[in-house]
Amino acid sequence: MGVYHLKFGAAIIIMVLLYGTTMVRSIPNTNVTTVLCNSGKYTAGDPFATSLAYVLEELLTTTPKHKTYESYNISPYPNAFAYGHGSCNRNLTSSDCAACLGAAKTAMLDSCQSRIGARAVLHDCAIRYEQYPFTD
Ligand SMILES: *[C@@H]1O[C@H](CO)[C@@H](O)[C@H](O)[C@H]1NC(C)=O
Ligand SMILES: *[C@@H]1O[C@H](CO)[C@@H](O)[C@H](O)[C@H]1NC(C)=O
Question: Start and end of every Gnk2-homologous domain (predicted)?
């Protein structure tokens, strides 16, 4: 009887462990769906570069903290505004959202160098920036 209870208990523990790991292990799908670049370029030394770097950095840290995994941002420097938007699928963990946005940023900036606007849509997240306010 003692042995039986031990086995039963062990089976339950194993089930809980398996369930727990499958729940936690949701690897974000960072496959790129689309990357779109504005054809317009900013020149080297344009203050927009600083604004853009600020906005993208903010999006990467704030989006995973928002309950909706959705955030808009505006750069604080008055001489060249950058507007950004980041979002993640809600079934991601916060750290997976951050990882996905990092991959989205890399995919976007690799394809769209020195552009005045760009976006990358990945399977599980998306990122976009422009020189004007937008919603989407
Ligand atoms: C999240 O849900 C979407 C469908 O809404 C699905 O395509 C995607 O693969 C899911 N991602 C994860 C990490 O489960
Ligand atoms: C990502 O894309 C590759 C190549 O198209 C595909 O083999 C892979 O299954 C995709 N990954 C996911 C998680 O959908």
Answer: 30-134
